[in-house]
């Protein structure tokens, strides 16, 4: 189940134009910018990062406070006139929810400590409100929008790094110009973008968002619930198992190849190369979570491609909603070339005793046996690479939303 929209990055700057000599001397085409562009029916244009664009609600954009005040004062006034009141309401909401959660015993020490620290932080902010944040949440009603031109993810990454380095005029400068200056500062703008979520103010959270956030926090600092498998078959794994158990996967792949070889000899048609994807592949996992009163779980599955050309790993985080239903609040599908040489990983897989048990069966089929084994092991190494990449994406998501309970909005296809 693919997520409709995940938050690509925590926050960045928005602007439309600058009064500096640079912007006066050069107008950069939209296609050369590193930020999203939203054209309004009023003729005004906003540049920045669109955080969410739900079909049934306003488009949420992160905007730079100073720029918004200077270039779009009416939108600035609308966004900030009740900002102090909204901050107080969000702070009060967070404190009340934390007190309610802590009123009941919290079994996991790590989770209890995190919640108490968050309560202490929230109460300190109530007594000593922070200065206005650098960025403002700008909500644009859909009927006011004429055109939305998104920037590619790699361009937004450059903008994130540029603003983290306080480069001037990020909103109006050519992408390559920003890249040159970042390179001069020895900043790797291709790396994962920095977390700028502490530069925005809190927002009120509905019950579904709060449930999703708490599910992720309890999974992260409490006792995680993980599942792995193929197709609809998911097996619960303990917290010490960090990688997919490749033995059953490669056994299945090799057995499929044995079957293919036998069918070639008999003239029978080959079976399909992959397992049909089910929309209910998380059903068995959520049933276990319900039985144990767990709010969130992560599941990872491998798509079996017996031709060995591509290894695909799908991973998802599922959260229990207030009404008892389950929602996938984040999902990622990672594929890797199954024919690429990965010598170290292949050597490790080849030594697995469970893999060695079936090699005699493959070799007994004749000259093609060694090739079939090599192909399957290479596929296994590709699967390992796909899982590592998928894990990295999940950790980015997890860390972004478990830093604080009033962090960036957690928005998905709800």
Give the strand content: 15-25%
Helix and strand pattern: HEEEHHHHEEHHHEEHHEEEHHH
How many β strands by DSSP? 10
Q: What structural class do helix, strand and pairing data support?
A: alpha+beta
Query: Percent helix among the residues?
Result: 40-55%
Characterise the protein shown here.
This protein is an alpha+beta fold and 414 residues long. It folds into 2 domains: 184 residues, no CATH class; 176 residues, no CATH class. It contains 13 helices and 10 strands. The strands form 2 sheets. A 5-stranded antiparallel sheet has the order 4-3-2-1-5. Strands 7-6-8-9-10 form a 5-stranded mixed sheet. Helix 2 crosses helix 3, helix 6 packs across helix 7 and helix 9 packs antiparallel against helix 13. The radius of gyration is 25 Å and the shape is globular. 35% of the residues are buried. The N terminus is likely disordered.
